Amino acid sequence: MTNSGANSQSGTFYANNGGGEPAAGGAAVYQNHLRLRSETVGGKTVDPRMKAQFVTFTFSQPVTGLSFFIRDIDRDDKLKVGDTENVGFRDQVYLVDSPTPTRVTLGSGLQGSGTASQPWETQAKNQGNQMAGSLNYDVGLEWSGPLTSVTIAYKQGTPTYNAFPTVWISPLRFSGPGCS
Questions:
Q1: Any residues with CB less than 8 A from the CB of 31 and at least 6 apart, and which?
Q2: In whole angstroms, what is the distance from residue 137 CA to residue 35 CA?
Q3: Any idea what the Cα angle at residue 160 is, between residues 34 and 92, rounded to 5°?
Q4: DSSP class of residue 29?
Q5: What's the rounded Cα separation, in Å, for the pair 45 and 41?
Q6: Is the pTM of this model over 0.85?
C-alpha cells in the first residue's frame, strides 16, 4: 500500500499538503492515525472553500474488506463577540473518484453524504472543538471490495484563523493477496 500527500514521523502519521507538523495537544488519543491539517498562510486559510487537501491510498493489488474511520470532524464557525471576521473552523471531508462504500456509519453529530457538494461535517448546532475520542464526530467507512485505491479530501468550509484544524484517519484494515 502507498499513499500520496502523507508522511510519517516517529510512528505518528501526518499530512499537510505534503508537508505537515507533528501532532500537538491531545494527539496521544490518535496515535498511529494519519493526521490531516488545514493549510494556513499568515494564520488564515487561503481560499478555504475551494482548496482541499487530497490523500490517496493506493494498493498494489486489489484488496477486500477495507475499513477505517475519519475522526474528529468538528467546527466552531460562529462569530465571536467583537469579531468582524470568522475566527473559527469548519472541517469538511468527502471522497473523490472512489468506489461507493458498502457501509457508512455517520456519527450522531455529523451530516452530509461525503460528496464535494455535501461533505461530511458537523451539524451547525454542535459548535465548538469537540473532545478527541468522541465517536459522535467520526465517520466509519467500509468497502466489501475489491478495490485498488481510495481518495479522501479535507477542507475548511469557512475562512479560518485557527492554527490547528485537524481530522484523523484511523489505521486501514483490509484483506488482500498474501494477507492472513
A1: 11, 12
A2: 15
A3: 45
A4: G
A5: 6
A6: no
Q: Hunting for cell 494519519 — which residue is that?
A: 34
In the block, cell 494527539 appears at: 27
Measured distance CA(157)–CA(150) in Å, rounded: 22
pLDDT in tens, the chain (180 residues): 544 444 333 333 344 333 333 344 444 567 778 888 775 444 444 444 457 788 899 999 999 999 999 998 988 776 666 666 655 778 899 999 999 999 999 999 999 999 999 999 998 777 777 776 678 899 999 999 899 999 999 888 776 666 567 888 999 999 987 765
